[in-house]
Amino acid sequence: MKNQAELLSSLLDMAEAMLMVGAEVSRVEDTVTRMGFAYGARHMNVFVITSCIMITMGMPEGEDLTQTRRVLMAGGTDFLKLEKFNDLSRRCCAGLVEPSAIAGEVREISSLTTGRWRMHLGSVLAAGSFSVFFGGSLLDGGVAALFALLICALQEKLLPISMNQLSFNLLCSVIVGVLTGLCTNLIPVLHLDKIMIGYIMLLIPGMAMTNAVRNVLGGNTISGVMRLIEAVLWAAALALGFMIAMFITGGGLHH
Questions:
Q1: What does the pLDDT read at residue 251?
Q2: Cα angle at 135 between 129 and 136, to 5 degrees?
Q3: What domain range includes position 48?
Q4: Same domain (yes/no): 36, 132
Q5: How far is CA 126 from the centre of its chain?
Q6: Which residue in 4, 24, 65, 175 is deepest, having the highest Cβ count within 10 Å?
């Protein structure tokens, strides 16, 4: 019974870790179900929403084991980790991983980090490119790229101490928006809207909205609606923060 409880706990670890890296609900449920059957369960009942995971395993001896886990963090999107979790689940289903080793591999994959310079470089390229793409000058793109580095710094320092993603988006947009407004007021050739539209792409919850719609279309209505409402609130916090910043700085009135 102890080993079976540990296996169920490991499956919960797997499900939570997949949610944290952006996996859709249907993928998590299917993965955990397949792994449970691979390790001898008679039946699997898996229910996943963005904030809670419930798994019931029917064991060969006729007993049912149930565990529930609350998911407190919103997580993000990391396709490298998601690919590794998929590989782990396939190896488990092929009998290549001992049940006692699942939790360790999940922790090992979850601890992987992307090099800071890669994240910073990607943010700089994205912000600068979007700014120019939407009609900004090369100078606007360069300034947007610089503010992208500021956003990266805020994500590293401010996000861990923020109450939640909603409060972080509001604070981050106010801070970066005020500095952008001051910058455009001091340098009239800059375009406030073009700079903002460049780096705001780093904060818009596009993947969350996409997964929400996909969950709804896939029949996971509760999870989809919860994630969609969450993403809309995040976007609203961004919009409110930039509106506050423009009000404080005058909104680039020199244009």
A1: 63
A2: 65
A3: 2-110
A4: no
A5: 18
A6: 24
Phi, psi of 64 (to 5 degrees): -110, 135
* 227/173 same-domain check: yes
Distance between CA atoms of residues 243 and 255, nearest Å = 17
Question: How many separate domains does the chain show?
Answer: 2
Tell me, yes or no, whether 106 and 149 share the same domain.
no
Identify whether residues 99 and 32 lie together within a single domain: yes
Rounded to two decimals, the pTM is 0.78
Q: Are residues 225 and 121 in the same domain?
A: yes
3-class secondary structure per residue, 127-195: HHHHHHHCCCCHHHHHHHHHHHHHHHHHHHHCHHHCCCHHHHHHHHHHHHHHHHHHHHHHCCCCCHHHH
Q: Is 89's pLDDT higher than 70? A: yes
Tens-digit pLDDT profile for residues 12-69 = 999 999 998 888 888 899 999 999 999 989 999 999 988 899 999 998 887 889 999 9
CA distance 184 to 144: 11
Residues 6+ apart with CB under 8 A from 130: 144, 197, 198, 199, 201
Contacts of 30 (CB under 8 A, 6+ apart): none
Q: What does the radius of gyration of the chain's CA atoms come to, in whole angstroms?
A: 22
Strands 43-49 and 64-70: unpaired
22 and 88 housed in the same domain? yes
- Determine, yes or no, domain membership for 254: no
The answer to whether residue 185 is domain-embedded is: yes
Asked if the structure places residue 255 within a domain, the reply is no
Predicted pLDDT at 252: 53
143 and 213 co-located in one domain:
yes
